[in-house]
Structures are given as C-alpha cells and as structure tokens.
From TrEMBL:
InterPro entries: Fructan_Metab_Enzymes, Glyco_hydro_32, Glyco_hydro_32_N, Glyco_hydro_beta-prop_sf. It comes from Kribbella caucasensis. One of its GO terms (molecular function) is hydrolase activity, hydrolyzing O-glycosyl compounds. One of its GO terms (biological process) is carbohydrate metabolic process. Residues 18-223 form the Glycosyl hydrolase family 32 N-terminal domain. This is Beta-fructofuranosidase. Belongs to the glycosyl hydrolase 32 family. It holds the Pfam family Glyco_hydro_32N.
Length: 315
C-alpha cells in the first residue's frame, strides 16, 4: 500500500516499463486539515514498484502552473502512454479557479525516462466543446467537467482514443454524466467528438475511465459516489464507488445504464493492471472509513469475470 504520513493520496494511474510499475498519484498536504480542500492543492507524485505492493517514492512529476495558465490552480488526474517515438506522454487535467468554479482542460507533458517531465508548449490540448458538452453556467453544476483523460491506441492501428469525464449539454441536471470522447492521429492534435454514451444513465458525472480487455472481454471502469448520482438512481443504489461495464467494443459506444457496482464508496478510482504473475488485479484508493477520508492507495486485489460482470475475488 502507498500511504504518506504527511499527505493525502487519491486518484492515480500506472505506466509499466519492463518489469517496473510507475505510479503517478495526486497528493496534498494533511496540513490543510480539511480533506475537501485537497483538490485545490493537488500535485502529481511519482513512485515505482516491482510488485504493486512496495513503493519507492521518486521526485514529483508535475506541479501546477503559473498565474494565467490553464493549470494554475491544480494538476489533476491523467494517464501515461508510450508513443511510437518511444517517448512517454502524460495527459493530465489542468484546473483553474474562475469565479469560484473549477474550469477543467486537458494538457500534456512528455518525458524520455518517466522521471523528468516537460509540459507541452501547446497546452491546453483540448476543452469541452459546447456542441455536445456542458459549459459552466453558474447554475447547472458545480464545475466545468472536462477531466481524467484515458488514452489508448486504436485496436486496428488507426491512431488514438481519449475517454474524458464530461457532462452532456442537455437532460436533467443531475443526470448528464457521459463518456466524453476525442481522437488523434499523433497524440498531439486532438479532435473532440460526440460522447460515446447518452445522458440519463443515472450519474451526474462518470469519473476516471479505464478500459481493458480482460479474459477476452472488454471491461470499462468508471467511478461515481452516491452524492453525484441522479436522484432516481440514488433511491435504489446501496452505495456509490467503482462501477464496471462489460461491453463489446474497446472504442464504444457504451451503455452506461447497464453498469454494475464493483465496490462500495470505501474504495474509489479503480485501475486494472496485470500483476507480476500476469493475473488481473484491481488497485484503488481508500476513500471513506469510520473516521472520514483516508487517502491511501490499496494493495492489489484479484478480480475475475463472473456471469454478472467483473467481481473482486473473496479474500
């Protein structure tokens, strides 16, 4: 488990380089006292492991930008991929407080060694397109959702896909969460596309997507706590947390209404990864406990595909 004595740790993503796992994570000082304040103070930390259990911390990867930058308030969740040029590309969320609302855009940093990162001079790469996605209006939602990029190669070799936490520009205010979508040929130039799901699935937002092929079946993970679900789903849901959807295609579309809960809200931001024995495991961060927010990253938890979807193996 990754737990820092002086900081909360929450959202994270993993890049594998040979036998070594590189963990990038959001963290903020516990000297803030109130964990809800962490979002406006988030930096991106870095640690490595060869077993997903024991982590060695490395220098931080990224910090927030200067006044006027798209990431002047905080750097948030992203992903790392290796491009055809062997360089590493980190796509991340930049947050800027504009009139009390966090306006989110997606930026890029690159590295030759996964250690030293340089922000791209063309940032931000992309932002919510009002043709399909909600822009902050001071009334509908508490922020402008355009974050948590998950980038992966097209299975047929036709460029790259990006899944994004976003909200549709129409529908009931508490039920607009959709799978935001963009495409690229070269990892630098991105075209925002219509969402890969429809609003009305029961979620105000769908956070931190992750899609993998597990045992021959495509599995999409996303995250939503009970407080951000639509009112009608809240009446029947036992809890929020990590959700999974078994689907047919890595590139969508996705019928989010068929998603099922994988965990309760004690765990959040699920990531699937193969462990050193090539078995699929889930990592997540410890969210809520008896004394409130915890803020530490779990040890790997084995998973398997059951008849009703992805399931944690009993301990």
């Amino acid at each position: 488990m990754l737990e820092l004595p002086d900081s909360w740790v929450w959202d994270f993503w993993i890049a594998q380089d040979g036998d070594q796992y590189h963990l990038f994570f959001l963290y903020a000082s516990r000297a803030l006292h109130d964990p809800d304040r962490r979002h406006g103070r988030a930096s991106i930390g870095h640690a490595v492991s060869d077993d997903l259990r024991h982590w060695t911390r490395l220098p931080d990867a990224l910090v927030r930008g200067e006044a006027g930058d798209f990431d002047e308030t905080a750097t948030w969740t992203g992903c790392v991929v290796q491009g055809p040029d062997s360089r590493w590309y980190m796509f991340y969320t930049g947050g800027r407080d504009e009139g009390g609302a966090m306006i989110q855009r997606i930026g890029l940093a690159t590295s030759d060694d996964l250690i030293t990162w340089h922000k791209y001079t063309g940032n931000p790469l992309l932002e919510a397109d009002p043709r399909w996605y909600e822009k902050y209006d001071g009334a509908s939602w508490f922020d402008e959702a355009w974050r948590d990029p998950w980038v992966y190669p097209d299975p047929d070799g036709d460029g790259w896909h990006m899944l994004i936490t976003a909200r549709a520009g129409h529908g009931p205010v508490d039920d607009r969460g959709v799978v935001g979508y963009a495409r690229s040929k070269d990892l630098l130039h991105w075209d925002v596309q219509p969402p890969l799901s429809r609003p009305g699935a029961g979620f105000g937002h769908l956070e931190v997507f992750h899609v993998e092929e597990v045992d021959g079946q495509v599995v999409l993970l996303f995250n939503c706590l009970r407080g951000e679900m639509a009112a009608w789903r809240n009446k029947t849901a036992g809890s929020g947390g990590i959700w999974s959807l078994v689907t047919d295609n890595l590139t969508g579309p996705f019928d989010i209404a068929k998603a099922t809960p994988l965990t309760d809200d004690s765990l959040y931001v699920g990531r699937l990864v193969r462990d050193p024995d090539c078995a699929w495991v889930l990592l997540a961060f410890h969210n809520e406990g008896p004394d409130g927010f915890i803020g530490a990253i779990s040890d790997p938890m084995p998973v398997f595909l059951a008849a009703d979807g992805l399931t944690l193996k009993p301990s």
